[in-house]
Specification:
Order of helices and strands: HHHHHH
Number of helices: 6
Structural class: mainly alpha
Number of domains: 1
Strand content: under 5%
Distance between the termini: 33 Å
Largest sheet: none
Oligomer: single chain
Helix content: over 70%
Radius of gyration: 17 Å
Length: 185
């Protein structure tokens, strides 16, 4: 007897979306970095996306599996970068902004290739990955330059990116529930 696995993409998309929106509201300067972002980064952006990614592997969807597990671990590494310096361990000292820039640039490069993988898929999915690519590179440049203004612009791009992922996640969720396409994507 074959076990059917539900579509894990809405979980992964919504975990990514809501965590991205919250972080980028912070990046725009509206709120300080706080436990709400750390908690979302660990549990919903991190662990929930990793679970969605593992289920995508089981379904044979290598693109979604790679995306969700990778970005889930991105959130965990980001939170670790923020929290590990508080441990007092010398090797866990705060990362210099220029090195954070390289971290973000590598994620931008990875995301650019993932965006390429979306060509021919839905326009909303293409937009999510394109806007995420732009977000990572803006944040990298902002880290290298120490530019608060560019950091705030990146925050706006991040809110737009997260909102588009939220829309896609809800569209896929409603399609599964209603057994028909409810929102175009």
């Amino acid at each position: 007897m074959e076990t059917k696995i539900a579509n894990p993409a809405p979980l992964g998309l919504l975990g990514f979306a809501m965590t991205t929106i919250l972080l980028n509201i912070h990046n725009m300067g509206f709120f300080p970095l706080a436990s709400v972002i750390l908690g979302m980064g660990i549990f919903y952006g991190g662990i929930a996306q990793i679970i969605a990614g593992i289920l995508c592997f089981k379904k044979g969807n290598v693109f979604a599996a790679t995306a969700f597990t990778s970005y889930g671990f991105f959130w965990l590494t980001l939170v670790a970068m923020w929290m590990l310096p508080a441990t007092g361990v010398d090797a866990a000292a705060a990362t210099p902004p220029a090195f954070v820039g390289w971290y973000l640039a590598l994620w931008g490069l990875f995301t650019a290739f993932m965006w390429w993988g979306t060509w021919g898929n839905s326009r909303v999915q293409q937009f999510v990955f394109l806007s995420l690519t732009i977000l990572f590179f803006l944040l990298a440049i902002s880290s290298w330059m120490g530019s608060e203004d560019l950091h705030k612009i990146a925050g706006l791009v991040g809110v737009i990116c997260g909102s588009s992922a939220f829309y896609l996640g809800v569209a896929e969720l409603l399609e599964e529930v209603k057994h028909k396409k409810v929102l175009p994507y």
